[in-house]
Structures are given as C-alpha cells and as structure tokens.
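Colleagues,

For the teaching module next term, I've prepared a clean inverse folding example: a structure given as tokens, and then the sequence designed for it. I'd like students to try predicting residues themselves before seeing the answer, so please don't circulate the second half yet.
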C-alpha cells in the first residue's frame, strides 16, 4: 500500500493511453527505425477511453505507468503524461538494453510491485501481457480501444522494444 493507503492501478502507455497509429510506419521498414518510432511518441494523440479510465481510477487508486518504452524515453513520456492531464505517478520503463518480450518484463515488474503494494488492476493492450498477468493472479483490463497493429505486436514479442 502507499502512504495514503490506496491500491495501485497500473496503466500501459502505447495502445492503451497513447495512440501510436501515426508512428507505425517506422516499424514496417527493414530494418525497423526504433529511434524514429520512439521520437515520434511525443506527438501521440491520447486515447480517450484509456485517459478517462486512468482519471476515473485516480479517485480510488494511485495511478502508475508500466511501459515497454526504453528508459531513454522518460523525459518525453513524463511531458506527454502531463500534457494529457493524467495523474502524476511512478513510471516503470525497460532498461535501454533490455530486449525481452513485454510479457516477461512487465510481469517481473508487476510481481515486484505487488510485494509492497496492492495492485488493483493492470490496463494493457498487449494480449500476451494480459494473459500472463491473469495467470499470475492480477486483475486485468484489456485495452481494446485502439486499432491493433501487427507490426507493433511483432516488435513487442520478437524484438522486445515496447
């Protein structure tokens, strides 16, 4: 639990709070342009359903953010969250050199968090992350409000980039 005794609602960013459609073209090239993909994240439009759920969750929960984005994107991510009026909260990001699939990195972080604080829910668009989290006993809200991207799903699973 936090100091104010509230549980934690954990939100993914890409495809859950942030609409990545405008930067998918960086992932359809060979080789994929990861620098371009992440640099363009600062211009992501918000996904209204995800933002509304985060704001609603903040009434009862501390809100935190668990993303597959690399640590080098932290400043842009903090700025983006503030511009959307989202609650301030802890942000867990992958190490710049971590290429494991999101389903592994996110579950590892969720388990660490759960040792010291109740995790009320995880909100994520990645079906494999959601499946793993549910198997581990976490309550999951599947963010199915963004258009799915096969190139992003492939990149998440094969290249561990987001």
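(Answer key — instructors only)
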């Amino acid at each position: 639990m936090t100091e104010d005794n509230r549980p934690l609602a954990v939100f993914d960013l890409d495809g859950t709070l942030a609409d990545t459609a405008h930067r998918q073209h960086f992932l359809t090239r060979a080789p994929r342009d990861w620098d371009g993909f992440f640099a363009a994240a600062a211009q992501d439009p918000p996904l209204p359903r995800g933002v509304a759920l985060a704001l609603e969750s903040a009434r009862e929960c501390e809100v935190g953010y668990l993303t597959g984005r690399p640590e080098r994107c932290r400043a842009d991510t903090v700025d983006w969250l503030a511009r959307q009026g989202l609650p301030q909260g802890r942000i867990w990001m992958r190490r710049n050199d971590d290429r494991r699939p999101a389903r592994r990195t996110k579950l590892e972080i969720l388990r660490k968090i759960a040792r010291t604080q109740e995790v009320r829910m995880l909100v994520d668009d990645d079906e494999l992350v959601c499946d793993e989290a549910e198997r581990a006993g976490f309550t999951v809200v599947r963010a199915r409000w963004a258009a799915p991207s096969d190139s992003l799903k492939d990149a998440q699973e094969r290249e561990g980039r987001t």
